[in-house]
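chain below, 143 aa
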Amino acid sequence: MNAIRAMNYEIPSTLLYSKGHVWAMVQNGAAVVGVTDYLQRELGTVINVEFSDSEVVERDSPIAWLESVKAIIPVPSPIDCEVIEFNTRLVREPWLVNASPYDEGWIAKLRALDLEELEKLQRAQAYIELISALSRCERYRVF
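prediction:
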């Protein structure tokens, strides 16, 4: 996976990104999603992952919750979707969110309810600009 290094964060150039720090790998109207390197580092060591009970999730509503040593945060869905599958391995091995955020630490597989929603996600360069702006804001915190 081709990745851009920006401010010591890994940002794969082939993925799409939401402003909620969720990446999406899109294929045939479905998307594998997870949290970005930026978010997992801000959050710290993930010690627990819980998944939503909903089969249909609206954009920006939680598909999962990550508990770290710092906080518990929702993982917002980047699109209106139907949940196809959760990465249940994370229940036993939540540390994969930190160790492999773009591979083994994926959160869910989603089916877009409206394919046009996928076009609203950002490309890597736009996401890099977002986290660059956030890093300049001394008071900004993800949670």
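The chain has a mean pLDDT of 92. Residues 55 and 81 are 8 Å apart (CA to CA).
thats it, cya
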